[in-house]
Amino acid sequence: MTGIVPTEDRPRRTIAVVHAGLGQPSSTRLLADRLADATARELKALGHDVTVEVVELRDHGHAIIDAMLTGFPTGDLAADIETITQADGIIAVSPLFTTTYSGLFKSFVDILDKDALTGMPVLLGATGGTPRHTLALEYSMRPLFTYLRADVVTTSVFAATDDWAQAGDRTRRDDGASSLPERIERAGRSLAATMAARGEHTKRDDPFASTPSFLDLLGGD
Amino acid sequence: MNGASGDPLRSTTIEEHSIMQFGIFSVSDVTTDPTTGHTPDDTERVRAMLTIAKHADEAGLDVFATGEHHNPPFVASSPTTMLGYLAGVTKDITLSTATTLITTNDPVRIAEEYAMLQVISNGRMDLMMGRGNTGPVYPWFGQDIRQGIPLAIENYALVRRLWTEDVVDWEGKFRTPLQGFTATPRPLDGVPPFVWHGSIRSPEIAEQAAYYGDGFLHNNIFWPMSHTKQMVAFYRQRFEHYGHGRADQAIVGLGGQVFMRKNSQDAITEFRPYFDNAPVYGHGPTMEDFTRDTPLTVGSPQEVIDRYGSFIDDVGYYQRQMFLMDHAGLPLKTVLEQIDILATEVVPELRKIADAKRPEDVPANPPTHAERVAAAQAKGEAGATHVGDGGDEFTGKRAEEAL
Question: Which of A62, A65, A66 to mutate: most B Cβ within 10 Å?
């Protein structure tokens, strides 16, 4: 986590970065970090202080399966779920395995409360071997978050092995497509704008605070 | 205190010195013993439950509760049949449920069956309402799990009316209307059984328990204490809100799960294959993780005393602690040994701890029938013990003429 001292008139925004990269170093983590940097930069330009919290799903591999089997997350995993669901925006990045997000990534999403991400600004990223898998972001990852009623920004970023070999600046790629840095910038701006516009969002409902009174449950009998 | 008549079966007394109750509950699972490969058949399992309940009574435990299930591998489909038998063959133990399905049972049958059990057991019973979390079971009984909470609310409201009002006219969303209906037998001494509501994570049910001033039992055996604390605190606060007393005077129960041997390591070694293969958590977390995160305690009696003696510090003084003992394929002999260890080495110590930690004006135990009768009579709220003059108002016939 990197923090910046808050000041009174610069409202704080917290970005939660959650990624399912497995390697050390991991190109998925690399993409996630770049997306976070781009978003943070833009948020700061919009007048916000920014906190970035990074959750590595690899660290929670066993705990995620345990939570699936027992029905409740514990320990560090529970704390990280809290961090993610209470953030102002999420950057979610998975490697693509056999045409879609990794099983670890999906298992993590599966143990979240179905209402936990409602209205949450989300930026999607994915990494894979070749650009032929780019659309996996659109046909599998985006519907997953749409189902959870997250507010998924239009631009998502796919980084193939090839992309990392391109020049690190924002010049056009040889094939005329926009470069990875360009796409990262655009995605970061998009998430930052959504997060900034969201204002002081209402944190996820406290299940106890939102419990109807018994007279309402009785239906006014 | 009550039971004024000379009939010894009807004489009930209030214990001189009451304290937290300790009991066992069964979910009635038929599970293969992973160490022997033996799987009991349904008859063997039901009879094992009867033996376990009788043993718990003889050992001096306070409560035996049976679950209710309508799908294999569980056998306890008919709690009041089982508890009615146990009422006849046990002496002191309170008979209860864990849980009674308020969603899929007809509330009229619940009112009738549990009033019958109350009469037969001479008030040595209470019951816990629960919704049941197995979706496919609901349609077998004409219901829908998505209506679980509305069913629990409407059905229980009707059960209460059937117990407290002699003649009921009623119309609701989920059941045929009733016109001039009287549930019999009327509750013992005109006072219905004490009711608990069990829920793991639905605040609406804690709200329901609080509204009526009923008990709330959080069966936390698969949950971390942080969660249990929140649910109990919410129930307590709403109990006070509805004017039944202070938050710390609300009636709370907790679940628990232990396996004990004299030496801690022996308990761990013996229980591990059962843990590793248990239907609910087997092949998931390690036993070490699970014992850290949930109330499951595997070790010496002293370790159980230390852990369970501390729960009062988490949720406030509570009135009933239940233990799951006969699950995961554990052989009957082992379960009976566990009950003996619990009753002779653990519970006496836990009673002392509970006694020491109880604030003076907080109820020591869940209300017994005798206490409820005394309270109802003091307030002039005890109901009729018979309705009508012996004739049937619809046919004009007396029962014996109808033969």
Answer: A66
Question: Does ipTM surpass 0.90 in this model?
Answer: no
Min distance A128 CA to chain B CA atoms (Å): 31
Domain count, chain B: 1
Which one-letter amino acid corresponds to residue A22?
Answer: L
Q: What is the DSSP letter of A21?
A: -
Asked if A114 reaches chain B (Cβ–Cβ under 8 Å), the answer is no
- Report helix angle B107-120 to B148-164, nearest 10: 50
Bridge partners (DSSP) of residue B215 are: B196
Cβ <8 Å between A70 and B284: yes
Pair B327, B278: CB distance under 8 Å: yes
Strands B215-218 and B195-198: parallel
Q: What is the pTM of this model?
A: 0.86
What is the number of structural domains in chain A? 1
Could you give phi then psi for residue B217, rounded to 5 degrees? -110, 120
Express each pLDDT in B190-247 by its tens digit.
999 999 999 988 999 999 999 999 999 999 888 888 889 999 999 999 999 999 999 9
Picking from A74, A208, A218, the nearest residue to B157 by CB comes out as A218
Taking an 8 Å cut-off on Cβ atoms, the answer to whether B284 and A212 are in contact is no
Q: Does residue A117 form part of some domain?
A: yes
> Do the Cβ atoms of A214 and B242 come within 8 Å?
yes
For residue A16, the cross-strand partners are A53, A90
Q: Cβ neighbours of residue B87 under 8 Å, at least 6 residues apart?
A: B95, B117, B120, B121, B122, B124, B125
**Number of other CB atoms surrounding residue B142 within 10 Å:** 10
Among A68, A113, A208, A218, the strongest candidate for a mutation testing the B interface, having the largest count of B CBs within 10 A, is A208
The DSSP call for residue A176 is: S
Query: How many CB atoms neighbour CB A148 within 10 A?
Result: 19
Q: For residue range B103-116, list pLDDT tens digits in order.
A: 999 999 999 999 99
Q: Which CATH number does the domain housing residue A190 bear? A: 3.40.50.360
| Domain boundaries, position B31 | 19-402
Question: Which of the residues B133, B146, B202, B207 would you substitute to probe the A interface, choosing the one with the greatest number of A C-beta atoms within 10 Å?
Answer: B207
Size of interface A-B (CB pairs under 8 A): 54
- Cβ-Cβ contacts under 8 Å, A211 against chain B: 203-204, 206-207, 234
Q: Which domain holds residue A154?
A: 12-217
